[in-house]
Design brief:
- The complex is a heterodimer.
- Chain A has 21 helices and no strands.
- Chain A is mainly α.
- Chain A folds into three domains: 88 residues, no CATH class; 120 residues, no CATH class; 178 residues, Serine Threonine Protein Phosphatase 5, Tetratricopeptide repeat.
- The longest helix of chain A is centred in the N-terminal third of the chain and has 22 residues.
- Chain B has two helices and six strands, in the order βαββββαβ.
- The chains are: A mainly alpha, B alpha+beta.
């Protein structure tokens, strides 16, 4: 709704759009207090917002400078109502949401500010909720939002998808933001509840929106959507009833969401066109392997190593190297895995990542050196980002005495080791990168 | 059973969406409880805080009423109760009271 109203008022009047939405919402609640919530509350809210917008515009017509592309229509009482009506058509609303998303993902803004902006103006998160999502103070979140909105407002008009020269660049930024939004929810690096499904759901919803717009529905968008589906399918099993992190090998596969997996498969298939193999293709292919396997034991580690290798060439990252090393350990044994871990190019980037020492610990344990393993797990505990991770890693410290080995647990990108078969097309592309 | 009009005065429910949502839930719970017990004749409506007042022979129209916020009528409900005492008692669960507002109870005059 903010997106639609911003389209009407102009992006420089973002604050006004937000006020109108909030006002419409509060008024609706006031009525619902007495009459009960209607069957279609969102339709109701839309109407309320439209009426509030009309009020505001009639009252402030002289003072307001509207969106430049609509200004003429909105300035005249003859066309005001119908122009507003058109702007509130369902397809127009979707277009506005897309424009808003592209506007929020302004490369002039740091990625975390882009996401904060998307969360607030598109997902309706309050500054307090955003602060909780990023584990920052309320004041810091407000500051981040205020700065981001200033940049957004300065752009004067919403990003026009059809005629923008830097569309491809912007689309990359949008992909990145959605990816981070999802992984923020999935990792839950910053929260008591390690999985905040809400963030994941919003990322999927916005990504689905991209798929509806022909220009934005590129193979990379499809691959990203597939990746999010595969990972979302496993959201519920990642944490057990008492809030403990469950390593992938121990998850109850029968509880994975089949519908999401099928959707992921379909989009991944559809993503296999054109010349581009994005990082999302590769990650989705890895995630697909994971969801296709009937058990953790049936694993084509060689293909996994190859996929991680391709991913590394495309996007060098110590986290990807870490995951590749884990896969190497599965084929060539824990000693070779440790070698690969120690060979990681940029280890200082992993200094705060608890699953780096955890991987070292797990492999040391498999090599039969529990004392070394315990040291690594202790280091990992010290880096744990939430209580689920901490409890999981503390159990690993305790397990060193008993010598119990568990499957290695990793994060979002990396949470994939079971590979049965790849879509032939993706496999071909993966090896071409 | 007789009819009574509840007039809700004052008790601003807060301008943040979170506060408004909380209030809505409290009100809906209260009113649906009264409804289930057969006390609601008409759940009523909220009222805008603006209006006009027409006075006297001259039918002078002025903006208003500009009562103080705490006295302004923000909505009404018509309930059915055995007597005014029960009507007063039933209003005790109204969420407006916790916000410093008041419920004015007026018996509907019967022939």
């Amino acid at each position: 709704m903010v997106a639609t109203l911003t389209r009407i008022f102009g992006v420089h009047n973002l604050a006004l759009a937000e006020d109108v939405v909030q006002d419409a919402f509060c008024r609706a609640l006031e009525v619902w207090k007495f009459r009960g919530v209607p069957d279609n509350p969102s339709g109701w809210l839309m109407t309320a917002a439209k009426n509030r917008a009309l009020d505001v515009m009639r009252r402030q017509r002289i003072a307001l400078r509207y969106a430049p592309e609509l200004g003429r229509l909105l300035d005249s009482e003859w066309t005001l109502s119908s122009a507003l009506e058109a702007a509130f058509e369902p397809h127009a609303i979707k277009d506005d949401q897309l424009r808003m998303m592209f506007s929020c993902c302004n490369p002039a803004l740091p990625a975390n500010a882009q996401i904060a902006l998307v969360l607030q103006v598109q997902c309706g998160f309050s500054a307090r909720e955003i602060a909780a999502a990023f584990l920052i103070g309320l004041a810091a979140a407000e500051k981040r939002l205020a700065r981001a909105k200033k940049v957004l407002a300065a752009s004067e008009r919403l990003f026009e998808i059809a005629d923008a020269g830097d569309f491809a660049v912007r689309l990359d930024a949008v992909h990145r933001a959605l990816y981070l939004l999802f992984s923020e929810g999935y990792h839950g690096a910053s929260s008591e509840t390690a999985v905040r499904a809400e963030l994941c759901r919003e990322a999927i919803r916005l990504c689905a929106l991209l798929l509806e717009q022909p220009l934005a529905a590129t193979p990379a968008t499809r691959a990203l959507y597939a990746l999010l589906c595969f990972n979302a399918a496993r959201l519920t099993t990642r944490i057990d009833a008492s809030g403990n992190l469950v390593p992938w090998g121990a998850q109850d596969r029968s509880r994975w969401d089949r519908r999401l997996i099928l959707e992921g498969e379909r989009e991944l298939e559809a993503a296999a066109t054109g010349h581009e193999v994005s990082e999302y293709h590769l990650e989705a292919a890895i995630a697909a392997m994971h969801t296709r396997a009937s058990s953790a034991g049936e694993t084509d580690w060689a293909s996994i190593v190859a996929l991680y290798g391709a991913l590394l060439r495309l996007r060098p990252s110590p986290v990807v190297e870490l995951n590749r090393a884990i896969a190497v350990a599965q084929i060539e044994g824990p000693e070779r895995g440790l070698e690969a871990l120690r060979a990681i190019g940029d280890p200082e980037k992993l200094a705060a990542y608890p699953f780096y020492p955890a991987a070292l610990g797990e492999l040391e344990l498999r090599c039969g050196r529990p004392a070394n393993a315990r040291e690594h797990f202790r280091a990992a505990v010290a880096l744990a980002r939430n209580s689920s991770e901490r409890r999981f890693l503390e159990r690993r410290v305790a397990a060193c005495a008993a010598g119990t080995i568990v499957a290695l647990n990793e994060g979002f990108v990396e949470d994939a080791h079971v590979m049965q078969k790849m879509t032939p097309e993706i496999r071909r592309r993966a090896t071409q990168v | 059973m007789s009819e009574y009009l509840y007039l809700y005065r004052g008790g601003e429910s807060g301008r943040t969406p979170e506060a408004a949502e909380k209030q809505m839930q409290l009100w809906m719970a209260w009113l649906s409880d009264l409804g289930q017990k057969g006390h609601i004749k008409d759940p009523g409506q909220p009222l805008e805080h603006t209006g006009k007042v027409v006075t006297g022979q001259a039918k002078t129209v002025t903006d208003g009423p500009y009562a103080e916020a705490k006295d302004l009528v923000g909505g009404y409900t018509i309930v059915e109760a055995k007597d005014i005492h029960q009507a007063a008692e039933l209003s005790g669960g109204c969420p407006i009271l916790a916000l410093g507002g008041a419920v004015e109870i007026r018996p509907v005059m019967k022939m």
